[in-house]
Fold this sequence. Notes:
5 helices; Rossmann fold; five-stranded parallel β-sheet; alpha/beta
Amino acid sequence: MVKKTKMLIVDDEEGIITFLKEFFEARNFEVFQAQNSKQAIKEVAESAPDIILLDINLGKGPTGIDVLKDIKNIDKKAGVIMMTGVKDEEVTKEALKLGALDYITKPLSLSYLDKVVILKLLNLQFRNMSKGE
């Protein structure tokens, strides 16, 4: 049996989580979800997702950048793709510097998102194979 790719979707908007969850489950992903920073960190620690879609603006409390730092403290190799409704060059640079794989803006193009996720997963797998992991 082929192992399903694990994905964590972190967004404070339940509608976006539901929409993306259905989209990726239809592509045979095992999808976990979190609506705040505490849930996100808990899921990363417990589920060890292969790829994480992380919103920059999580409402009250820590930002997606804060959560990215925490995720990288738990798992330096975690594949994180940042999502945002507002394009901000400084935040983009910071996210990439902290180890995010990519940065995409909302509204999300599903065909683009699908391609980005697959490409980043393949890159992660290749990197891990070349390191003998």
